[in-house]
Design goal:
The chain is mainly β and 81 residues long. The chain is built from no helices and four strands. Strands 1-2-3-4 form a four-stranded antiparallel sheet, with no helix packed on it. The model has no long low-confidence stretch (mean pLDDT 86).
Amino acid sequence: AAREARLPYALDRPSAVLRLPGELREISGLTWLPSGRLAAVQDERGAIYELDPASGAITGVRPFRPSGDFESVVWDGTALW
């Protein structure tokens, strides 16, 4: 018999809900940065947004391409991919 996977949190009972600015309606990934902030990739704009994890406010924007279809972002300890 297959074991049911258990998560360390309840998806139906979030500990916080943040409203992100409208320009982040199409984010496709989140990753923690060494600064304690979050990085989010905007799915169609080719920009990485730095976010305050307590409020969801944009604290910085780093364009990397004019446009495209970007599906994820990750900090690997040395670079943002």
